[in-house]
Amino acid sequence: MGFLFLFLILFYLLACVGLAYGISKNLRSRLAKVSTWVVVMFLATSFFLSRLLPEGTPECIQSVIYAISTTWLLYMLYGSMLMMLLYIGRWVMRIAQKPVKPIGLSTYVAIFLAVTTLLIAGYINAVSPRIVNYHVGLNGKRIVAVSDIHMGHGVGKSDVEKLVNIVNEQNADMCIIAGDLFDGDIAPVVNGDLGGAMRNINCPIVAVMGNHEYIGGDPDRDAEYLRGLGINVLRDSAIVLNGYTIVGRDDVSGVRFKGLTKSIKEIVPDSLMNNLIVVDHQPYRIDESVENGAVLHISGHTHAGQVWPMRIFTSMIFKLDYGMERFDGTAAIVTSGFGTWGPRVRLKTVSEVVVID
């Protein structure tokens, strides 16, 4: 995974260099050429630079830089794909001995407009959450499950209010939040009280920590904020609700950051092992839920890839990266999540709230 990550970064930076070179060679003015290189290289590194902003930087500036830097990643992803198709087409035409026009500035403008149109459609899709229903057999109980809200610079108060309204309309017996409530830094959430609307959810709420709570640096602080909203935060612990034992696994990031983790058998006493529902942010430990006879396993994290073609990689990494599948007597559900990481864009995936009957 580390090698793949480094390869992707190198490919991304080379693509940015190629873009700057391709545009600048079509410009006559030296100032325009230099400006092109400066702008493209700034955008290329803006995502990394955004992580180095000094403490106390106004949140409006942080939000703008976050939006620009993460959206740029998608411009490069889809722009590179279109350029590859263009070069393949030119190669085919040369083999066929047909005339090939040089790539000019108008080509880059056309690609920019095409990607912009695609991302606008992806934004509309991302802010239009859908309800996805699964039937498991819960003795007449109804669970609303949601994951990956990612409150922060990209997902704001109005989004959380929309989520609360959707949850309340389902008349559920409980609401389960499978991690990544925050996008990392909790400061914009606290300062804007982005999670405040969750106090209005009309059923008991259970939540677990996700990897982004660990990325934010202080999952203990995040958990305390959530408890202040009336949310039962389970960190390798369990609670009995409506006749079910809800087991909240601490995210596997806890192993990397703290070196600690517990098995289900260590969390749940034998007397409560019946009617087990396991909530675990990343869907790595589904097998353990099956081994312990869980009725239901709920995860998130994958975003179902969030944007095409990223699901190719999530489906390679996880046994189940989206949807519901039964393993022996356990129904495992992995949701694509309500919010988004980075750009507020979804392509070939949906923002969703899961209703389990």
Write up this protein.
- The protein is of the alpha/beta class.
- It contains 12 helices and 12 strands.
- The chain has helices at 2-24, 30-50, 59-95, 105-126, 157-169, 187-191, 211-215, 219-227, 253-258, 264-267, 286-291, 311-317, and strands at 130-134, 143-146, 174-177, 205-207, 232-233, 237-241, 244-248, 276-279, 296-299, 323-327, 330-334, 352-356.
- The longest helix is centred in the N-terminal third of the chain and has 37 residues, at 59-95.
- It starts with a helix and ends with a strand.
Summarize the structure.
With 357 residues, this protein is of the alpha/beta class. It is built from twelve helices and twelve strands. The strands form two sheets. A six-stranded mixed β-sheet has the order 1-12-2-3-4-5, with helices on one face. A six-stranded mixed β-sheet has the order 6-7-8-9-11-10.
Largest sheet: 6 strands, mixed
Share of residues in strands? 5-15%
Oligomer: single chain
Helix content estimate: 40-55%
Number of strands: 12
Identify low-pLDDT runs: none
Radius of gyration: 23 Å
Shape: elongated
Mean pLDDT: 92
- Span between N and C termini? 37 Å
Order of helices and strands: HHHHEEHEHEHHEEEHHEHEHEEE
Number of helical segments with 4 or more residues? 12
What is the SS-derived class?
alpha/beta
Strand order of the largest sheet: 1-12-2-3-4-5
Give the SSE layout:
Layout: H1 2-24, H2 30-50, H3 59-95, H4 105-126, E1 130-134, E2 143-146, H5 157-169, E3 174-177, H6 187-191, E4 205-207, H7 211-215, H8 219-227, E5 232-233, E6 237-241, E7 244-248, H9 253-258, H10 264-267, E8 276-279, H11 286-291, E9 296-299, H12 311-317, E10 323-327, E11 330-334, E12 352-356
Parallel strand pairs: 1-12, 2-3, 3-4, 4-5, 7-8, 8-9, 9-11
Antiparallel strand pairs: 2-12, 6-7, 10-11
Helix pairs in contact: 1-2, 2-3, 3-4
